[in-house]
Every structure is written in structure tokens, then in C-alpha cells.
Amino acid sequence: MGDPEDIIRDIMKNTGSTIQIENLMMESFREVLKDEIKNRMQESLERNPEIKKEISEAIDILMEARLKEALALMKLAKASTKLGVESTPPDVRKEMIKSFTALFEKELGELLENTL
Questions:
Q1: Is 90 exposed, middle or buried (0-12, 13-18, 19+ CB in 10 A)?
Q2: CA distances, 95 to each of 57, 79, 103, 107, 111 (Å)
Q3: Distance CA 103, CA 86 (A)
Q4: So what's the pLDDT on residue 42?
Q5: Are 96 and 85 in contact (CB under 8 A)?
Q6: Are 103 and 81 in contact, with CB atoms under 8 Å apart?
Q7: At 3, is the secondary structure helix, strand, or coil?
Q8: Residue 68, pLDDT score
Q9: What DSSP state is assigned to residue 87?
């Protein structure tokens, strides 16, 4: 007869692998279910182009709103940076401006390289 600790360790290992298999099966089932729901929704959209158009218009409005939000956040960042610079002593201000400029040039350059 084996050591009780070895028996417990074996049970724990087997339980862990069983749970992993159960999780994998549940995830797979969810994926199959999602695919079926997507198929049914796509069929409904094909039968009713009015709904498809309505969804498309709503997505356009949402995208525009998100872009306006991003623009507003950038303007806030710009204004808060200006405020921070204005609030510093003149000798520190010049160094801050150089640092910010270098940082933005680098970030903008990387963004453009990755985008284009």
C-alpha cells in the first residue's frame, strides 16, 4: 500500500486534469453556442436589411462619439500640460518644454511608423 501523501497527490493531479478537461469542454460548448447564435443573427439580418442599416447607422454614431471623446481627452491633456508648464518657474519651464517636445516627437514618430 502506498504512502497516504502519494495517494493524495495522485488524486489532486487527476482532479486537476479532470477539471481542465471539463473547462475545455465548457469553453468549446460556449464557442459552438456563440457560432450558432451568430449564424441565426446573420440570417435575420439578411432577411431584414432595415435592421442591418439601423445597426450600421448606430455604429457610425458610436464611432464618431468615441473619436470626439478621444479628441476631447487630447485637448484636456494639452491644456493640463500648458497649465503645468505655466505653473513652473521659468528656468525649469525651458527644460520641461524640451523634454515634452522630445517625448512627443519620439512617440509620434513611432506611431507614424507603426501606422504607415
A1: exposed
A2: 48, 18, 12, 18, 24
A3: 19
A4: 96
A5: yes
A6: no
A7: coil
A8: 96
A9: T
Which amino acid type is present at position 37? I
32 pLDDT more than 80: yes
Residue type, 47: R
**Residue whose grid cell is 478621444:** 70
Give pLDDT tens digits for 48-70.
Answer: 999 999 999 999 999 999 999 99
For residues 55 and 91, give the distance between their C-alpha atoms in angstroms, rounded to a whole number: 55
What are 108's three cell numbers? 509620434
Asked which of 1-15, 17-31, 57-71, 97-111 is least confident by mean pLDDT, the reply is: 1-15
- Cα torsion 63, 65, 69, 74: sign: positive
Q: What is the mean pLDDT of the chain?
A: 86
Nearest one of 65, 40, 45 to 55, comparing CA atoms: 45
